[in-house]
Amino acid sequence: MKALVYNKDFDGKIEFCEREEPEIIDSKDAIVKVKLSTICTSDLHIIKGFVPRAKNDIVLGHEFVGEVVAVGRDVKKISTGDRVSVNCETFCGECYFCKKGFINNCINGGWELGCRIDGCQAEYVRVPYADNGLTKLPDGVSYESALFVGDILSSGYFGAEMCEIKEGDTIAVIGAGPVGLCAMMCAKYMGAGKIIAIDVDKTRLKIARKERLADYVFNPLECDVEKEVKNLTENRGADGVIECAGTKETFEMCWKIARPNAIAGIVAMYEEPLSLPLPEMYGKNLTFKTGGVDAIHCKKLVKLIEEKKISTDFLITERFKLDEIINAYKFFESKPAGCLKVAIEP
């Protein structure tokens, strides 16, 4: 089969080449035929060397939907022919962390697909612990509508959930990219009264407005964001801040625009070590929550899509065929105006 492979020895570190089709290795495995996949910024992080745990010579990609074509003998909830969304996390469901809902820290999994085992930018994928990692799609939910359930929509939900949103809260989201837009969507669903979108990209702020995900939009290049947020909140600051941008400047903004006793949910992946200026923030009594997504709400998210309470369809702004995937990576990395997510078709 054709697949996009990451290897440090390749010129450019990625190559579209032939690989053996995956086979059932464990009785809890399933083989999924990829119907639609997408590129994630964390895929670019692997190529750039910012993910030390990533293995060499793997098929990239972890965000996809498809059709089950084979299952191991111990797979009970999934059958061949099922249309499924695939969780970006591999998790056993039995270890200490899984039982607590911390599936990102599963001792038998975590972020495996496209990082430590072959991922989805290929024709077929082996998915371990298929009963946990696959979510069946109802007839009314298309592959396009479910494409982002297992990663960025789950990440947005994760960020909003970290903020423990109460009815009427003011939530600021830094970064109006795909994850940030999903975080706004989920914060609104959870009852936020005001949602503030912050980004230097005017096009993305317009999308946040157009899709009615944000009530206010601020561009740090055009205004004093801290001042504007305080003006909206009787000089307190935001009740919760979801940081989805991932720079030194946005990390600093995150704690500065939060009110005392607020929660900062850090969803972003950073490319350099950062530190907390504890003397400056002493007395604000902030709670920081960070980490990779615990994507435990996939069934709920699919249900919300089916009920048309949320929709991520607008995120697909470009489409490429699998055999064009090298160009798709170059396109996505260049971040042209208006590009949110690319869909990779067979």
Structure keywords:
346 residues; 24% strand; alpha/beta; 28% helix; globular; Rossmann fold; Quinone Oxidoreductase, Chain A, domain 1; 12 helices; 2 domains; 7-stranded mixed beta sheet; 6-stranded parallel beta sheet; single chain
Explain what you see.
This protein is an alpha/beta fold and 346 residues long. It folds into 2 domains: 2-148 and 312-345, Quinone Oxidoreductase, Chain A, domain 1, CATH 3.90.180; 155-290, Rossmann fold, CATH 3.40.50. Helix content is 28%, strand content 24%. The chain is built from 12 helices and 16 strands. Strand 13 (258-266), helix 10 (278-281) and strand 14 (287-290) form a beta-alpha-beta unit. The longest helix has 14 residues, at 149-162. The relative contact order is 0.14.
Quick structural gist:
This protein is of the alpha/beta class and 346 residues long.
Number of domains: 2
What is the helical fraction, as a range of percent?
25-40%
Radius of gyration: 20 Å
Find the CATH superfamily of the largest domain.
Medium-chain alcohol dehydrogenases, catalytic domain
- Strand percentage lies at 15-25%
Average pLDDT confidence is: 97
Biggest pleated sheet:
7 strands, mixed
Give the secondary structure arrangement, pairings included.
Layout: E1 2-6, E2 14-18, E3 30-38, H1 41-48, E4 58-59, E5 64-71, E6 83-86, H2 96-99, E7 124-127, H3 130-133, E8 134-136, H4 143-146, H5 149-162, E9 170-174, H6 178-189, E10 194-198, H7 202-210, E11 216-218, H8 225-232, E12 238-243, H9 248-257, E13 258-266, H10 278-281, E14 287-290, H11 298-306, E15 316-321, H12 325-334, E16 341-345
Parallel strand pairs: 9-10, 9-12, 10-11, 12-13, 13-14, 15-16
Antiparallel strand pairs: 1-2, 1-4, 3-5, 3-7, 3-16, 5-6, 6-8
Helix pairs in contact: 5-6
